[in-house]
């Protein structure tokens, strides 16, 4: 059992968390998606709520085992829906954590009927989705903290630091895929946290619940 003081550390703090994948509609029965499970975002939501925060969880498709009355779940499907749900809430937040695996592109148009099979090849035109974290970074006020994630397969460190700058994050959490136990749909993760002073802290491979505790500690230390 954790000490009472820890349970109250985020009392009165409003936190928004994006989590999970987005599904971008091709036609009424098909979509472009990704393998994000939403487990990392959910673990962060559960931990912050356990420490007293009031959490708005904006989540793409998946199963979310909400452990606290302090969490309000808003379900979305597409990146556009996630953007809107985030944008209307952002100004009221003290902390925003962008843990979702947002699709970078969406079909230029959604077919109103199921696309029929015809020629030997076909292509779908894709257009860029809005950058939720990037846009909220432009709106960030002095009292707000924005936390982002980065998943890289090369030049991890410099790419993560570039994202911190570009999106105006206060912390960026690098997910290491190099380790076999880390990544999508697993219950473990290996992270490195970068701050604005260029300092980085690497953590061991841990359960997502333990990773959430480490990240929440890092956020607490920033405030
Ligand atoms: N992000 C977001 N909205 C998007 C794309 C990304 O909010 N449309 C957020 C993610 O939730 C994450 C951070 O931005 O916190 C970095 O996401 P990532 O996919 O690593 O970066 P991108 O800017 O999309 O660049 P790339 O995929 O080309 O590496
Ligand atoms: Ca991306």
TrEMBL record:
CTP binds at residues 104, 114, 149, 163, 167. Residues 15-223 are annotated as: Phosphopantothenate--cysteine ligase. Pathway: Cofactor biosynthesis; coenzyme A biosynthesis; CoA from (R)-pantothenate: step 2/5; Cofactor biosynthesis; coenzyme A biosynthesis; CoA from (R)-pantothenate: step 3/5. Keywords: Decarboxylase, Flavoprotein, FMN, Ligase, Lyase, Magnesium, Metal-binding, Multifunctional enzyme. GO terms for molecular function: phosphopantothenate--cysteine ligase activity; phosphopantothenoylcysteine decarboxylase activity. Its EC number is 4.1.1.36, 6.3.2.5. It catalyses: (R)-4'-phosphopantothenate + L-cysteine + CTP = N-[(R)-4-phosphopantothenoyl]-L-cysteine + CMP + diphosphate + H(+); N-[(R)-4-phosphopantothenoyl]-L-cysteine + H(+) = (R)-4'-phosphopantetheine + CO2. It comes from the Bacteria. Residues 11-221 form the DNA/pantothenate metabolism flavoprotein C-terminal domain. Its cofactor is Mg(2+); FMN. Binds 1 FMN per subunit. In the N-terminal section; belongs to the HFCD (homo-oligomeric flavin containing Cys decarboxylase) superfamily. In the C-terminal section; belongs to the PPC synthetase family. Catalyzes two steps in the biosynthesis of coenzyme A. In the first step cysteine is conjugated to 4'-phosphopantothenate to form 4-phosphopantothenoylcysteine, in the latter compound is decarboxylated to form 4'-phosphopantotheine. This is Coenzyme A biosynthesis bifunctional protein CoaBC. The chain holds residues 175 to 397 of 397 of the full protein.
